[in-house]
Amino acid sequence: MSGANRILLSVRGFHPQRWYDLLSASRPVTLEPDGPVDPSIEYAVVWKHKPGILAALPNLKAIFSIGAGVDHILHDPEIPDVPIVRIVADNLTQYMVEYVVWRVLDHQRQGALYRAQQLRKIWHEPQQPPANEIAVGIMGFGQLGRAAAKALLAVGFKVNGWSRMARGMDGVATWHGESGLTPFLNATDILVALLPLTPATRGIIDYGLLGKLHRENGLGGAFLINAGRGQLQKDADILRALEDGLLKEASLDVFETEPLPAESPLWMHPRMFVTPHAAASSDPEHLVPLMLEQMRALERGEKLANIVDRKAGY
Ligand code: NDP
Ligand code: OXD
Q1: Distance of alpha carbon 49 from alpha carbon 10, whole angstroms
Q2: Which residues line ligand 2 at a C-beta cut-off of 6 Å?
Q3: How far apart are the first and last CA of the chain?
Q4: d(CA 199, CA 220)
Q5: Per residue of the chain (314 residues), what is the pLDDT tens digit?
Q6: How far apart are CA 246 and CA 263, in angstroms?
Q7: Which residues, at least 6 apart from 264, have a Cβ–Cβ distance to it below 8 Å?
Q8: How many CB atoms lie within 10 A of CB 29?
Q9: Rounded distance, CA 240 to CA 249, Å?
Q10: Which end of the chain is more exposed for a tag (fewer CB within 10 A), N or C?
Q11: Residue nearest to atom 5 of ligand 2 (CA)
C-alpha cells in the first residue's frame, strides 16, 4: 500500500493487534513505537500515546481517541492544532448503560448483603425499597449519562442529572454548574459519576462531596458508582466514607492509579465492588469502521463529528 493517508497507531496498556489489522485493511498503518515517524502520516489513532510524538507529524489532519474520554490525549502539552475526535458509538454506549444499570440494581436490590448472607447460609429477607423510592443522580449528563438515565427511568428509578451547562430531559430533575451541585447531591441516594477528567473535575469526588448525598432512604445509606475516570475521585476519601457510614457501598470501575495496586485496601473492602476499567470497552470491530468513515468524510471536504472542545477539556 502506498504511503498516502497513512495512520499512526499509538497505544499503551493493551495489545493493539486487532486495531492494527482492521485499520491496515483499508489504509497503511505505522505502529508506534516500532515504526519511524513518517511525514506521510495524516491521522493518529491513539490511547495514551507517548507525549510529544504527535507534534512531530507535519501532515497530521486529525487525532482519533480510542476512548470516549480524551484526558489521555490532552495531558500532552504538545498536541498539534488539528481536530481531536472522541468516540461516540452505540456499542460503547450500550456497554456503559449495562454497567450502570447492573451496578445500580445490585446496590438497590442489596446484592452485597445477599452475597454475605449466602456465605453464612443465612435465610433472611431484608426490607426492600422499590426503585421508585430511590433517586439515582448522574454526574456528567452527556452521551453516556443521558443513555443511562433513560434506561434507569425505564426500570422505575427517580433520576437526577448534573452537567456543566443546563440540560433537560423528560422525567429527570436536572441541575448544572457549581451552584447546582449541592442540591443535586442532596436529592441523590445513588451517585453515578460519568464525568470526563478535566481541570474542573479532577478530585471532585471527595469526602465533602460524599457527605452531601441523601442517606435517609429505605436502603439505609448512600452509594457511589464511578465509571468516569479514577482521578475524579480521592480513593482514600471513599474508604473513609465507607468506614464511617457516609457511604454504604461503592462500585468503582476506575481508580486514581490503574491497575489498582495490590496493596490498596479497596480490593478487600466488603462493601466495595471493583472492576478493572471495564465498564465500556472500546471494541475495534465496531469503532474502526466509524473512524475510517470519518477519515473519508474529511477527505470529501465534510466536517468531522464528535470533535473535542479543547478549552472545556472534553
Ligand atoms: P460527554 O462529553 O458526552 O459528557 C460529559 C458530561 O459531563 C456532559 O454532560 C458535561 O456537561 C459534563 N461535565 C463536564 N465537565 C463538567 C463540569 N465541570 N461540571 C459539570 N458537568 C461537567 O462524555 P461521555 O458521556 O461520552 O463520556 C463521559 C466520560 O466517561 C468520558 O469522558 C470518560 O472519562 C468516561 N468513560 C469511561 C469508560 C469506562 O470504561 N470506565 C468508557 C467510556 C467513557 P455538558 O453537558 O454541559 O457539556
Ligand atoms: C473511554 C474509556 O474513555 O474506555 O472510552 O475509558
Answers
A1: 5
A2: 67-69, 87, 280, 282
A3: 35
A4: 34
A5: 545 789 999 999 999 999 999 999 999 999 987 666 788 999 999 999 999 999 999 999 999 999 999 999 999 999 999 999 999 999 999 999 999 999 999 999 999 999 999 999 999 999 999 999 999 999 999 999 999 999 999 999 999 999 999 999 999 999 999 999 999 999 999 999 999 999 999 999 999 999 999 999 999 999 999 999 999 999 999 999 999 999 999 999 999 999 999 999 999 999 999 999 999 999 999 999 999 999 999 999 999 999 999 999 99
A6: 23
A7: 235, 255, 257
A8: 22
A9: 12
A10: N
A11: 67
Residue linked to cell 432512604: 217
DSSP string, 171-193: TEEEEEHHHHHHHHHHT-SEEEE
Q: Is the CB of 140 under 6 A from ligand 1?
A: yes
**Ligand having the closest approach to the CA of 93:** 1
3-state secondary structure of 82: coil
Question: Contact at 8 Å (CB) between 194 and 138?
Answer: yes
Cα atoms found within 13 Å of the Cα of residue 297, Cβ hemisphere only: 13
Question: How many whole angstroms from 2 Cα to the centroid of ligand 2?
Answer: 32
Of the residues 282, 283, 308, which should be mutated to test ligand 2's pocket, given the most ligand atoms within 8 Å of the CB?
Answer: 282
Largest pairwise CA distance in the chain: 68
Sequence letter at residue 146: R
Catalytic residues: 229, 277
Indicate if ligand 1 lies below 6 Å from the C-beta of 198. yes
| Mutation test residue for ligand 1: of 181, 194, 198, 307, the one with most atoms within 8 Å of CB | 194
